[in-house]
Amino acid sequence: MRKFAAFILFSVVGTSGWCGDTIRPGLWEVTTRSDLLGLIAHVPSEQMQQITSLARQYGLKVPRIQEGAAISKVCITPEMAEQDIPSHFYENQSGCSVVNASRSGNRYQVELVCDNPRFKGNGHAEGIFSTPERFTGKTEFNSTVQGTPLYVYAETSGRWIGAQCEPMR
Known about the structure:
InterPro entries: DUF3617. The protein has 169 residues and is of the alpha+beta class. It has helices spanning 2-15, 45-57, 78-82, 87-94, and strands spanning 26-33, 64-66, 69-76, 96-104, 107-115, 119-131, 134-145, 148-162. It has one domain. The chain has 4 helices and 8 strands; from the N terminus they run H-E-H-E-E-H-H-E-E-E-E-E. An 8-stranded antiparallel beta sheet has the order 2-3-1-8-7-6-5-4.
């Protein structure tokens, strides 16, 4: 259970903030829903603290998880908003590599390959920016987490909150 929870947290943190030049820079609220996130409620608090501590070691902040959804705040800088496909965001946050990324108008697609000591697998993320202040998307990921096969499907939505925020570190 702990390894599944850790994988979900890293996946949500790593893939929740994709953006392109059709969106507004500033503070965004991103909500990711997944059946596996519902399992987080069953992780003992001591193990959840260990997962949170591990995430911090990698420079990640664990989002608030409530009723099968992870809710986080993401700061999109003007430089990030200007990029056509910010593949470095996926690579830096999740430990995965982007092998294919494309964008057409307000739609994007990203293919991911992860090969690190904690998990290995392939994933696909896609989404649509309906306005400069809203997006929806989905992610599918087939992986092996510490030797255990795991399929993850998640739906993500984001909404712009305001122009001012601190840059992500």
